[in-house]
Amino acid sequence: MALEFETRFDPAYGEAVEIAPDIQRLTVNNPSAFTFHGTNSYIVGTSSLAIIDPGPEDEAHFQALLKAIGGRPVSHIFVSHTHKDHSPLAARLSRETGALVCAEGPHRAARPLRIGETNPLDASADMDFRPDIALADDELVEGDGWALRAIHTPGHAANHAVFALEGTGVLFSADHVMAWATSIVAPPDGAMSDYMASLDRLLERDDTVFLPGHGSRVRMPQRFMRGLKAHRKMRERAVLDRIERGDRTIAEMVQAIYRDTDPRLHGAAALSVLAHLEDLVARGAVTTENDPSIDAIYFPG
């Protein structure tokens, strides 16, 4: 099933845009090859509010959030994961509003670091983040006129969670599922086997629209997620094909598989290939002399 991406999006920086009943979106002015037009924060509720993914330490965005809140009480701040474009502003917003910060937990890797390995993603991780409430999988948090259910969706990050707005069909999908691009799965923070299992988890649900961490809404999410699964399987086949053709390094594979991709994303692409290889080695489809790594030599299984 071919993926059809939605790249039309008006970020309306500094403005709270009502996108559904009792849901507003504010987009941070932090566009990049990884964040699209910027990170989306969401305000849920009318009289008493919840904030989802307050974003990075950005003064203009902080002031825009306060303006949109308009003096109303904020009882909870939900954080989907601890990448620096999503979580750092939570602490300051909590001090300002008295809201409790809710998330799956602090930042962590999906697996232990291997001997001699350094984590290239440390610079993008919010290592200082600590939630007031560590949300269990399927835990329901209720506020005044709203209820959000946390669903653990590791893959993009080990502590990634999405939030379903009960009784509405709306799910805040953060960076797990986005309409504008596929999610980056980059070890050691992310894991491909976890990502695929999390897609299956959401495919079992009947949500009707996803509101992601970047870009516009995901319409027909079930169909879109089936497309994401097919895309990942296609990438897996491409990796296996390159190994069968004689490629032995990730650099060689990236040059061939991502030849039409923005070169600025080749570093992320290399980590995505590593995520596939970690999974393939664990399943015995590919072999390597030591543990899978960016610099390892790979062979057919």
TrEMBL record:
The cross-references to InterPro entries, in alphabetical order and at most eight, read: LACTB2_WH, Metallo-B-lactamas, RibonucZ/Hydroxyglut_hydro, Sec-metab_biosynth-thioest, WH-like_DNA-bd_sf
Residues in domain Metallo-beta-lactamase?
Answer: 38-214
Output this protein's name.
MBL fold metallo-hydrolase
